[in-house]
Specification:
Layout (H helix, E strand, L loop, with lengths): L4 H4 L6 E2 H26 L5 H22 L5 H14 L4 E2 L1 H23 L3 H21 L3 H11 L19
Antiparallel strand pairs: 1-2
Pfam families: DUF4395
Protein name: DUF4395 family protein
InterPro entries: DUF4395 (IPR025508)
Length: about 180
């Protein structure tokens, strides 16, 4: 079966929550490496700034790819869906809308990090990454998606339509 561009650029719904957590764990490792590179750049370690740029670009591209198409174009997403998550257990399907929203927040954090790195503000980049790692770590290691929680709060406030994700109205009721 041939995939069309439309198929590639369509975000899947529902998504596997286990795969999302696996992707978050991979992103956490990349973010931790980026944090280490930025701290090293602050201390003046030779080459650390270049490594910080490369890692920042990888983070941003990964998030953009996941916002566009979920795991289909993302190396971390594909690894999570096709290799890691099946080793953990059966898929736990959940609504895609809040996960996509969370990936969008990741784009913002990754773009801010890369902008700080390119401006030579490695300390600022490290601070952004520290906050980012808390959010990604909550998803990866505790199963709490902060972006999904924000999505539900925005939905409750009427900013996001109620029918975009009926199950999101009460994220605590999900299993």
């Amino acid at each position: 079966m041939h995939s069309t561009v439309r198929d590639l650029l369509t975000f899947p719904d529902p998504v596997n929550g286990i795969a999302a957590r696996c992707t978050a764990a991979l992103v956490f490792m990349l973010g931790a490496a980026a944090l280490a590179a930025n701290v090293a750049a602050v201390t003046g370690m030779a080459g650390a700034g270049g490594v910080a740029v490369i890692l920042g670009v990888l983070m941003l591209v990964g998030f953009v790819l996941r916002v566009i198409s979920g795991p289909k174009l993302s190396p971390f997403g594909r690894l999570s869906v096709h290799v890691i998550a099946p080793l953990i257990g059966e898929p736990q399907l959940t609504s895609a809308a809040p996960k996509r929203f969370a990936q969008g927040i990741g784009v913002v954090f990754a773009a801010a990090t890369l902008a700080a790195v390119l401006a030579g503000a490695h300390g600022v980049a490290a601070g952004i990454l520290a906050v980012f790692l808390v959010a990604v770590g909550l998803e990866a290691f505790a199963g709490f998606c902060l972006g999904c929680w924000m999505y539900a709060k925005l939905q409750g406030a009427g900013v996001i339509a109620d029918d975009s994700c009926p199950e999101c109205a009460n994220i605590w009721a999900r299993t």
